[in-house]
């Protein structure tokens, strides 16, 4: 059954946002600035002390309160260890707040630019901080947040797209055949690897979730944090599939703080394939939300799905065991 998200944020008007902020004694002095966030609703504002903040309203029904609080706790632990993450603010000893039908959290606004991944020092610096994140991340495990698996990122995604008839009829067989082969490759890759060392991850560590300043990086948006292998937080920071030099630099910094199991590099292409499938399914699951149809007009077109078939076939060719280093 297609998920109905048409009314997830229907009642989140500007006045509702302001009232929610006032409920935790925050009062914006100027207009709210909506930021680019599709899964949640995120606004930047400035208070009368000229302090900039960001407020995040969580999409209803995605995470339980306990799952959100687990992520908050991890972020706070990282911040307390002087690891540069943007953790939720504690107001009255709480980080998760409720107003009417919405749950929200408030963060200090920290700007920056995306990191230059072609710069050697930048990669080493990033590796060091991710190593520190993972060192703390493996100190304990999430109890309620999910684990990254080929089943929930690949198998479930393909099943949803086929079941809900998102794939045009004339390419459904081609898409299904290719996608199912990729799922089999991903399954085999994880099975052949054996037991994984799972730890709490950022979960979605791509360049746009790393803000860079002259003082170095700070990591934002732990909304997709989950248990998984360390390599998940590294591979999206390498700009080319088999760029040995970039991997060497990233891992040079990483291993200043935590040993990396080089065998996990065999999971890079399966993880990339899983992300491709999961991204299409994520858009499909949210397609009843009007903001998705406005911001992603190219999705669910014949051209999109035809290009997906080609992209998946190209990715299938890369799904062979490889050691990059």
UniProtKB/TrEMBL annotation:
It catalyses: L-threonyl-[protein] + ATP = O-phospho-L-threonyl-[protein] + ADP + H(+); L-seryl-[protein] + ATP = O-phospho-L-seryl-[protein] + ADP + H(+). Mg(2+) binds at residues 209, 221. Residues 37-260 form the Aminoglycoside phosphotransferase domain. GO terms for molecular function: ATP binding; magnesium ion binding; protein serine kinase activity; protein serine/threonine kinase activity. The record marks 37 as: ATP. This is Stress response kinase A. The keyword rRNA processing does not apply. It comes from the Bacteria. A protein kinase that phosphorylates Ser and Thr residues. Probably acts to suppress the effects of stress linked to accumulation of reactive oxygen species. Probably involved in the extracytoplasmic stress response. It holds the Pfam family APH. GO terms for cellular component: cytoplasm. The keyword Transcription does not apply. The active site is at 204 (proton acceptor), 221. Its cofactor is Mg(2+). It is found in: Cytoplasm. Gene3D superfamilies: 1.20.1270.170, 3.30.200.70, Transferase(Phosphotransferase) domain 1 (1.10.510.10). Keywords: ATP-binding, Cytoplasm, Kinase, Magnesium, Metal-binding, Nucleotide-binding, Phosphoprotein, Serine/threonine-protein kinase, Stress response, Transferase. It comes from Aliikangiella marina. Monomer. Belongs to the SrkA/RdoA protein kinase family. Coiled coil: none annotated. It is an enzyme of class 2 (transferase).
């Amino acid at each position: 059954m297609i998920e109905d998200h048409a009314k997830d944020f229907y009642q989140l008007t500007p006045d509702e946002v302001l009232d929610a902020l006032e409920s935790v004694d925050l009062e914006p002095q100027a207009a709210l600035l909506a930021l680019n966030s599709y899964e949640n609703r995120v606004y930047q504002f400035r208070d009368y002390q000229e302090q900039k903040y960001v407020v995040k309203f969580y999409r209803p029904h995605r995470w339980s309160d306990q799952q959100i609080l687990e992520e908050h706790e991890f972020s706070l632990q990282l911040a307390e260890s002087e690891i540069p993450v943007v953790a939720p603010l504690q107001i009255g000893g709480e980080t998760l707040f409720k107003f009417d039908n919405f749950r929200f959290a408030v963060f200090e606004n920290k700007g920056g630019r995306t990191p230059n991944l072609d710069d050697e020092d930048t990669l080493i610096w990033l590796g060091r901080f991710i190593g520190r994140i993972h060192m703390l991340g493996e100190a304990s495990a999430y109890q309620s947040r999910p684990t990254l698996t080929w089943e929930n990122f690949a198998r479930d995604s393909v099943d949803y797209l086929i079941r809900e008839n998102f794939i045009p009829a004339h390419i459904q067989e081609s898409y299904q055949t290719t996608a199912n082969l990729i799922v089999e490759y991903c399954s085999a890759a994880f099975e052949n690897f054996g037991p994984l060392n799972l730890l709490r991850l950022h979960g979605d560590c791509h360049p746009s979730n790393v803000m860079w300043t002259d003082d170095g990086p700070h990591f934002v948006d732990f909304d997709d944090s989950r248990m998984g292998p360390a390599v998940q937080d590294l591979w999206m920071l390498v700009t080319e599939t088999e760029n040995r030099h970039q991997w060497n630099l990233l891992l040079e910094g990483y291993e200043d703080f935590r040993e990396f199991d080089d065998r996990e590099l065999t999971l890079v292409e399966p993880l990339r394939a899983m992300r491709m499938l999961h991204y299409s399914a994520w858009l499909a699951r949210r397609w009843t939300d009007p903001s998705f149809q406005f911001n992603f007009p190219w999705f669910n077109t014949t051209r999109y799905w035809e290009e997906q078939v080609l992209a998946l076939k190209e990715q299938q060719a890369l799904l062979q065991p490889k050691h990059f280093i």
